[in-house]
Amino acid sequence: MERIGELIAAKRNTQRLLSIGGREFGAEHYPIIVVMHIAFFLSNVLEFIPRHAPLAKYWQVPFGIFILAQSLRLWVRRTMGGRWTSRVIVVPEEKLITTGPFHFMPHPVYLAVAAELFSLPLIFDLYYTCVVFAILNGIALLFIRIPSERAALDWSQKLIQK
What we know:
mainly alpha; Four Helix Bundle (Hemerythrin (Met), subunit A); 5 helices; elongated
């Protein structure tokens, strides 16, 4: 339910940001990110079905990490307000957000997602899902998402310098 609420807010914010002159970067990779996240949830279910034990022996540790990750996601969303979206969109003349979790790191939601993709499967001892999606997420971040954000920031800086 939380993810559906996020997607609704992301779509609303995306439309608003684009309507006020925002420019999207990396639109071509967005479907890949969506498919990866859907596959993650399906993989959890498919790996869980043949198991007979509902929870890992020490499920409290990954559950705690998962709750911290969700808290960080919420903090990011609240900090960004109407600028939060699941896409990479830059609005000319808007300054970078440097408050909240952005005061401590440049991509806090990526840390939250990585922790979530790592911890949720471990609550149920779903090691294949954990490993596969930790690797896929790392690849997506390093080679697709962060370069798109870098291009967006470079574009924004060029506008400011003019």
